[in-house]
Amino acid sequence: MAFELPNLDYDYAALEPNLDARTMEIHHTKHHNTYTTNLNNVSAGTDLEGKSIEEILANIDSVPEDIRGAINFNGGGYDNHCIFWKNMSPNGGGAPSGDLASAIGDFDKFKDDFSKSAAGVQGSGWCWLVTKSGSGSVEIKTMPNQTSPRTEGFVPLLGVDVWEHAYYLNYQNRRPDYISAWWNVVNWEDVASRFASA
After folding, report:
1. What is the CATH number of the domain that holds 90?
2. Between the CA atoms of 51, 153, 5 and 128, what dihedral angle is there, to the nearest 10 degrees?
3. Which pLDDT score is estimated for 1?
4. Whole-angstrom distance, CA of residue 57 vs CA of residue 115
5. Count: domains in the chain
6. What percentage of residues in the chain have a pLDDT greater than 90?
7. Do 74 and 38 form a contact (C-beta atoms < 8 A)?
8. Tens digits of residue pLDDT in 5-34
9. Distance of CA 19 to the CA centre of its chain
10. What residues make up the domain containing 90?
11. Which helix (H) or strand (E) holds 127?
12. Lesser CB count within 10 Å: N end or C end of the chain?
């Protein structure tokens, strides 16, 4: 079964003024759609057909070498963005609660450390809050380009896309300003659910 571009749970304008509607529309319909299309094209006719993206990425070393790079890039791009959209909400912001908050600890310190890590990604990439399955602990991890934390045995919980396509129309080269605004739309319910499931 082919991978499908997911619908968003909100309108493109719903995250304004933090993330502008035009960027959201282009990001979803062009960039995420391209990763989805390319993932389907590269995996067609291979043993990867019928496997979940989580399974594929977690076992990236078993993907045939001739398509591994393309699967890593487009599969990561597909999965990363599926998480990214769910990680945000028009009713987002604030701070986590419950077990997730306990795992994070000092939220202000975490937010500062995460923001600095995200701003410091060289070139294009992502900053993630991740966990190891069953560990009950979390850590901050940056990944280059579209490489998924799943390829290193982590479960991605919260990710911010720091490719320029995620913010350039509104924030130009002001990546820290974009990251600061992004905190206002973080969907902590989604992140907590991912943590509980891990």
Report:
1. 3.55.40.20
2. 170
3. 66
4. 26
5. 1
6. 99
7. yes
8. 999 999 999 999 999 999 999 999 999 999
9. 15
10. 20-198
11. strand 125-131
12. N
